[in-house]
Amino acid sequence: SQQGEEDPQALSIQEGENATMNCSYKTSINNLQWYRQNSGRGLVHLILIRSNEREKHSGRLRVTLDTSKKSSSLLITASRAADTASYFCATAPPSGSRLTFGEGTQLTVNP
Amino acid sequence: EPEVTQTPSHQVTQMGQEVILRCVPISNHLYFYWYRQILGQKVEFLVSFYNNEISEKSEIFDDQFSVERPDGSNFTLKIRSTKLEDSAMYFCASSEQGEGENGYTFGSGTRLTVV
Lengths: 111, 115
Description:
Number of helices of chain B: 0
Shape of chain B: globular
Mean pLDDT of chain B: 92
Shape of chain A: globular
Oligomer: heterodimer
CATH superfamily of chain A: Immunoglobulins
CATH class of chain B: Mainly Beta
Order of helices and strands of chain A: EEEEEEEEEEE
Strand content of chain A: over 45%
CATH architecture of chain A: Sandwich
Number of domains of chain B: 1
Structural class of chain A: mainly beta
CATH topology of chain B: Immunoglobulin-like
Largest interface: A-B, 25 and 29 residues
Structural class of chain B: mainly beta
Radius of gyration of chain A: 13 Å
CATH superfamily of chain B: Immunoglobulins
């Protein structure tokens, strides 16, 4: 089964708007993480939400987790052109250390 | 802010050749990982390493792959006999705890091209 599927695959918005990306997964998790990747670069950890948490904030980021629906969302408020990147969710299993990444959402913020 | 450093940033090699990708994890991290990303595809887990041994590996990590921590700072991925399909971006990562409770820190990657 595929774990960590994001939608939309691509999102284009204007600077100042909010961007929402969704992630669904299929198996039990210990935590879910969101990462950002600029084109051709490494992955940058943004935020982690544990399976017993429902919502978490960090600056302009807001993450929600619904374990009953096996889904998460990442909201970026007041987007900036510099937020243009690919965003990936990744799930960590209840035991073990392997992260399973989704396909990613390509976010474009137009100035 | 502490970083995970990977070298080289780009490597071109001929099919059948051995390559070694190098990583310097964050100094107080105990868990180390390799992931890869074939162009346009998902990031895939290869292997995790703790206490000088492999703790978990994926189906991709076959006998052609090996990892080593030769000294107190470096963490290497060796591909013994490269194939065309090994062409990918290889990312090293490290974490303080095994289940990534505080997230993982990734390096900038090594782009491996097998010709």
